[in-house]
Specification:
This is DNA-directed RNA polymerase. One of its GO terms (cellular component) is DNA-directed RNA polymerase complex. The chain has 241 residues and is α+β, with helices and mostly antiparallel strands. Helix content is 35%, strand content 18%. It contains nine helices and six strands. Helix 6 crosses helix 9 and helix 7 packs antiparallel against helix 8. The radius of gyration is 24 Å and the shape is flat.
Length: 241
């Protein structure tokens, strides 16, 4: 039986993209776990993983004295909450009517699709009255089609209007105009050459075996990678597709 390319069907879909949902539901389901992982940063119990992490850090106390015999003034500070905005044009742009930044613009301008991380800080000096302030925590790359992306929930027709492909699936980032995927570092090493976990460990740690910060995290990376059940270079490359 000959291959069926469905050329006319695809051409018709390109010219008249669906106005309700993607024509490739299975591909959408395949990407959904990646988008869900990013959404978990700001969604879920206790305000998402970002706020869970903030609560885990708790309050910190520092003293300003350089004299070992006295502590000096006491500063107690904590992060009350963290929120992640949606990509917008910078405040210096006074001309744009539509303040939203779309992925297509970032590709054309060779910029990053990112948004502001905003933190609410509270502090007190010498156990005095507590004060609060909202501060800018920098920019964070935004995953396409996530809950912080302007393409979220857009129909294929709306995606085309936003200068995207009608079957845009998301699940990746745009950094300096280049589309990037997040891949486990160990998986990349396994795909480059036939190597064992021991070779990777020895190659990275080398003589720095007393550095527990390095060894503990490298061991965690190697143990976490086991769940992929990929044991050779060919298996890893096949997983990449």
């Amino acid at each position: 039986m000959g291959a069926q390319f469905r050329t006319l069907e695809r051409e018709q879909r390109f010219q008249n993209p669906p106005k309700d949902k993607s024509a490739f539901p299975l591909l959408t389901e395949a990407v959904a776990p990646h988008i869900g992982s990013f959404n978990a940063l700001t969604e879920g119990p206790n305000g998402g993983l970002l706020n869970v992490g903030v609560k885990d850090i708790g309050a910190k106390t520092v003293f300003d004295s350089s004299d070992p015999d006295r502590l000096g003034n006491k500063l107690s500070i904590r992060v009350d909450s963290v929120s992640l905005a949606r990509p917008l044009v910078p405040p210096t742009d006074k001309l744009s009517v539509n303040r939203k930044t779309f992925p297509s613009e970032c590709r054309e301008r060779m910029s990053s699709y990112r948004a502001k991380l905003v933190m609410k800080l509270s502090w007190s000096v010498n156990d005095g009255p507590e004060e609060s302030e909202t501060r800018d925590g920098g920019n964070v790359p935004i995953m396409l089609k996530s809950n912080r992306c302007h393409l979220e929930k857009m129909s294929p027709k709306q995606l085309v209007d936003a200068k995207e492909e009608s079957d845009e699936l998301g699940g990746y980032f745009i950094v300096n105009g280049i589309e990037k995927l997040v891949l486990p570092a160990v998986m990349i090493l396994k795909a480059l050459m036939e190597t064992s976990d021991r070779d990777i460990f020895d190659g990275i740690v080398a003589a720095d075996t007393s550095n527990s910060f390095l060894t503990d995290r490298l061991e965690l990376l190697l143990r976490t990678y086991k769940r992929y059940n990929l044991h050779s270079k060919n298996e890893t490359l096949a997983y990449f597709g």
